[in-house]
Amino acid sequence: MPSNLPKGYKHISKKFFKEHDIEAWDKVEIKKGNSIFQGIILPRNQFAEDGYIEIKLKNGYNIGIKVQDLDTVRVVGKNPPMKVEFKGVSVPKDRAKPNVTLLGTGGTIASRLDYVTGGVIPAFQPHELYAAVPELADICNLDTKIVFKIFSEDMEPKNWLRLAKEVASLSNKEIDGVVIGHGTDTIGYSTAALSFLVKNLKIPVVFVGSQRSSDRPSSDAAMNLIHATQLAANGDIAEVVLCMLGSSSHTFGYIHRGTRVRKMHSSARDAFKTIGDIPLGKIDHGEITWFKNNLVRKSEVNSDVDTVCSTKIESKCALVHIYPGMSAEIIDFYIDKGYKGMVFAGTGLGHAPNHTFKAIDRATSEDVTVVMALQTLWGFTGMDVYSNGRKLKDLGVIPADMIPETAFAKLCWILGECESKDEIRTLMITNIAGEILPREEIRGYRILQGRTE
Amino acid sequence: MLDPETISFEEIGFRAGLEVHHQIQSKRKLFCNCKPELRTETPDYMFERRFRPVLGEMGDFDEGMLIEYEKGYRVIYHAYTECTCLYEQDEQPPFWPDLEAIYAGYQLAHWLNCSALVDVGIVARKQYLDGSITTGFQRTLIVARDGWVEVNGKRVRISNLTVEEDAARKLKTENFGRTVYYNLDRLGIPLVEVITDHLDCTNPTDLKKLGEIIGLTLRLSGIGRTGIGSVRQDVNISIKGGDRVEIKGVQDLSMFDTLARHEIVRQDMLIQIAGILKERGFEKSHLEHTYYEITEEFPSDSIPKGLSVMAIRLPKFKGILGLEIQPGKDFGQDVFEKASLISGILVEHMYHSDELSDNAQRRRNKKLPFLFPLIDKSLDGKICDVLDITERDAYCVAMGKNSWTIHAMKKIIERLKYALDGVPQETRRLLPNGNSEFLRVIHGKDRLYPDTDTPALDLELQRIQSLKSKVGKRPWELEKEFSEKYGLKFNQLQNLVHENRLDDFLILIKDYNIKPIIAYSYLTETLKHLRRKGVNTSDMGVEEIKIVIQQGLKKKNNIYDFAAQKYLEPKKV
After folding, report:
1. What's the whole-number average pLDDT of chain B?
2. Residues A336 and A410 in one domain
3. Does the distance separating the beta carbons of B448 and A48 come in below 8 Å?
4. B56 with A113: CB under 8 angstroms?
5. Which of A31, A188, B230, B360 is deepest in the core (most CB within 10 A)?
């Protein structure tokens, strides 16, 4: 019985390995009809199909061979399992340079590549990062801390709170800025949440991720990390922002306000857009240009006032997309399950089907906060325009002039902070962190459709 | 240097093989749904990228990749909304591959007698940092191994057959080669790469024939796309005591003979140089990375503002850089070409001490590089003083922006250290005169790793096997038939295939008993003449051709005159 069975295989392949006493990394010779293949047995992706084995040929290519049609297989050599050591680069601290702390949440900002399996090994410690992105050493003294290791899609409100506490404590220290590496799936929720959870922030907090993973030569990870670090080190802003490439080119990065940024493409480099407005600014070859002047400036913050962090967050909140024919049962479900708040991404100016009103009425009368944001993303709510909106308002639905994800994060924060209905409503409709725009300029609404006629 | 014209290939131990890249006929690109077509008009949009090497598992960068990164390319892409999408822009994961193109690869594998066909395809990534592929890696898939073709009566082994995506087309470079422009139209077009064993060809004649046989196979099988740029070959060459050197992207098979001869003399000379250095007691540690700034030694105003001149001492190298290693090119220039490509300093702005001689290779060119008129006997003396040069030493000089110049010097020293080891494994670019220059370090097998974006492709084994029945007569079988039965040569077979008239030819001689030479000359020469006179010959079927030939034979016994009259002056016939 082999002790080191190759990983990632299911039962037919596993049985085959056991029968032939084959271990991972063994060099084998396989005969099949007239064909002879020599190569190394590899571990493999666990979701790959059963019934075949994967070998790495001498020329570097991997191939798969069906086990059922093999004539003979024989182990011709044993290889020790590959050991991975990492040398890294150590850089001494330079007093003249700004101090930046990089917080890790689980996304891979930099990584090493396992050439045998194609797997990715995250690189996060300063010496690893300096090896992967040597430019960082010229920008600042970098400290790193892994706060947690969670895929962005698995993030929960309690993780936002944990991250916010970390940021608040750094803001009160002699640190020039914070960079937070985050998977891009839900990064926009986290930027919004931290914008509310941390009060009296004194330094830039820059979220960053990559749209093309760092194990590929064309990755945007290094460029984004350099931009984010430059912004955290030198930016005159004391807000939560996101900084990633502003176009398909590896040239400049845009700086987006944490409460207005949204991921608008599943894979493009410039997936992140400021919704309802233009970005706060841009960073190009280390030079920061601000487009907006309504920023909280780092240079103007009273450094005697401590940064504080909320102590609680309500995770029993839901984000519900309104759609034609949706059943009122969906709303009842959340009430029955004890949810404290619901954000609707409503149609049009902030509408929901008439047949859901009864359930909505039940929700508000049972003290479930119901907030109306917009699935159009752009534009303000207008719940006084049509009778549907007026009725919803009358049922106690609170209009939220912000993107649904921000409304959701804000509601989680508010319900952690207070219980009074009036207070909740007031906070929800008051601009706290740039989430509610005072006016909308046409410049912000730029979904270019490629035609001008 | 050996005389390239009188080489004994056997004595020198010449070994060569080919990597033939041929585009596949397909309806779409390999990993996306864009049309596989080339564009010449102004691009619809452009974007810019930079590439970085990826850290390997041990936390270090691959040497070859690092050299690519050192070139510091800024890459600008030309794109077209009709034939490029976000996939070519590397902004989106691959679509499911075009299985038709992959099965075409299997069909070719049968034509090439491959015995080992792969049942489950695993897409791999092959790294390139030159910008030719937006992802930084080419997606490639091995479909078969262990085949053979027959070339001049000998078997040449096919070691691997892969299906992969084509790279973007290089348009131009700017800023001393630091900014590279590519057109994205070609990126992603499926191609097959046929790799022959690089030890199996022992002379350039066989090598050329090998290229022709593979090309013909692709035409006969109907797999290959036709048109300009649809086929490119890399030539691998080594000699006894040398090493594998790859000469990349040769489109014209008639260049094979010259490039092979020029590469042989280069490798032979590099081996000789290693011998001389050993004799002189040279060790790698003798070369030090000490750079002397000598700008002030030059007459004031002779060096453009902002540029400086640096020099390095090369102990025991006197006479070596001036040795001719390819016709009209000395060793020094070969070294400079590499340093130039990596650092951006022009070859014209580099100089070595052997070039002081009136007989120096570059002095024979009337257009003298920049530094030449400036460095005379007296300045040479001054430089020797500054560098403390003794009788057995040489020196190199380069001019440019300070950091670029130091970079160039560093590369010169690294390359000269290697001179002690003989022939470095390199990928080289063919020059119009048959010489070649450094392009990159040969990529190792380690730069190939599984593509995690595409699951393993479970292919239909029955379909793969059934493709075997579609295999027709191979080129070498037809060659034999042509020579034995019809008295026609290989090039005449090639002409018929290129004119798409092989089937017509066989019908004419087999079904209508027309003499092979008459059928051949009508189908190739006569039709070509008519075409030149403006006659549309592509619609002419074998029946029509048969009648014209038979009538021509009867009436005038001069088929061409008859055909010309029939098609050009129809009233007279």
Report:
1. 92
2. yes
3. no
4. yes
5. A188
Same domain, A228 and A258: yes
pLDDT at A453 over 70: no
CATH of the domain at A71: 2.30.30.520
Helix, coil or strand: residue A110? strand
Residues B284-332 pLDDT 10s: 999 998 999 999 999 988 999 989 999 999 999 999 999 999 999 999 9
Residue A262 included in any domain = yes
**Pairing relationship of beta strands B394-400 and B350-352 according to DSSP bridges:** antiparallel
Which pLDDT belongs to residue B60?
62
For residues A250 and A222, the answer to whether their CB atoms sit within 8 Å is no
- Report whether B120 contacts B104 (CB < 8 A): no
* CB proximity list for A333: less than 8 A, separation 6 or greater: none
Annotated catalytic, A184?
A: yes
Residues A323 and A273 in one domain: no
d(CA B491, CA B496) in angstroms, rounded, equals: 9
The pLDDT of residue B453: 86
Model pLDDT for residues A223-255, shown as the tens digit of each residue: 999 999 999 999 999 999 999 999 999 999 999
A263 in active site: yes
User: Could you tell me if B450 lies within 8 Å of chain A, comparing CB atoms?
Assistant: yes
Instruction: Please tell me whether residues A64 and A172 are part of one structural domain.
Output: no
What single-letter amino acid sits at A166? E
**Structural domain of residue A63, as residue ranges?**
11-77
Q: Is residue A83 part of a domain?
A: no
ipTM of this complex prediction, to 2 decimal places? 0.87
The verdict on residue A60 lying in a domain is yes
Please name the member of A63, A132, A267 whose beta carbon is closest to the beta carbon of B118: A63
pLDDT tens per residue, range B379-415: 999 999 999 999 999 999 999 998 899 999 999 999 9
Q: Point out the domain boundary residue: A27, A47, A77.
A: A77
Domain harbouring A139, CATH code: 3.40.50.1170
Residue B282 tokens read as 């040279």
For chain B, the 3-state helix, strand and coil shares in percent, each to the nearest 5, are 40, 25, 40
Domain closes at, from A309, A331, A357: A309
A162 and A246 in a single domain? The answer is yes
pLDDT digits (tens, 9 = 90+) for B37-63: 999 999 999 999 999 887 665 556 667
| Integer Cα distance of A402 and B205 in angstroms | 74
Report yes or no: A9 and A49 within 8 Å, Cβ to Cβ.
Answer: no
pLDDT at position A84 is 57
CATH number, residue A365:
3.40.50.40
Say if B468 is an interface residue toward chain A (CB within 8 Å). no
For β-strands B448-450 and B116-117, DSSP reports them as: unpaired
Measure the CA–CA gap between B173 and A86, rounded to whole angstroms. Answer: 37
- Global pTM reads 0.89
A302 and A176 assigned to the same domain: yes
**Beta strand ranges found along A267-388 (DSSP E):** 272-274, 281-284, 287-290, 308-309, 317-321, 341-346, 369-374
Q: Do A61 and B49 touch (CB under 8 A)?
A: no
Q: Does B48 touch chain A (CB under 8 A)?
A: yes
Number of domains in chain A: 3
Amino acid at B256: F
A interface test, pick of B49, B67, B459, B465 with most A CB neighbours within 10 Å: B49
Query: Which chain A residue has the Cα nearest residue B89?
Result: A248
The answer to whether B447 and B64 are in contact (CB under 8 A) is yes
A222 shares a domain with A103: yes
Catalytic residue (one of A108, A144, A259, A307): A108
Q: Is residue A439 part of a domain?
A: no
| CA angle centred on A243, ends A238 and A246, rounded to 5° | 135
Candidates B87, B91, B138, partner chain A, best to mutate (most A CBs within 10 A): B91
Domain match, A280 and A194 both: yes
